[in-house]
Amino acid sequence: MTETTPSIFSRIVAREIPATIVAETDALIAFEDINPQAQVHVLVVPKTERYATVSELASGDPQLLADLVGMAQQIADDRSSGQYRLIFNSGEQAGQTVFHVHAHILAGDLGEGSLVGR
Ligand code: 5GP
Asked: Which terminus of the chain has fewer Cβ atoms in its 10 Å neighbourhood, N or C?
């Protein structure tokens, strides 16, 4: 049997690592990024770590991806103006460091350090 180490985000789902959780359903969790790059910087994460990238999620569970986008919109509505960037880094060369699919919501003052320049 192959043992895999739970991702850092699975450990947040399991409450093994603390995080500031802003929304949660049976299938999704959203929490503040530990190293914010904008006034609002929230990660939206499927609880399953089965999908590493957004394209895997899109082909494997399109409804879950749609639900993720819906949760992102709700958070941007609640915490900012409802206008936001939704970023999925896909692959190491694109800056992905956690291989458990997640969306970055960036909203409010995007500042100089945002993931994508203006
Ligand atoms: P990636 O670079 O894979 O697109 O994004 C990973 C994000 O996860 C980074 O923005 C990083 O700051 C965030 N992150 C990494 N470890 C933790 C953690 O333990 N808690 C929280 N809240 N965010 C984390």
From this structure: N
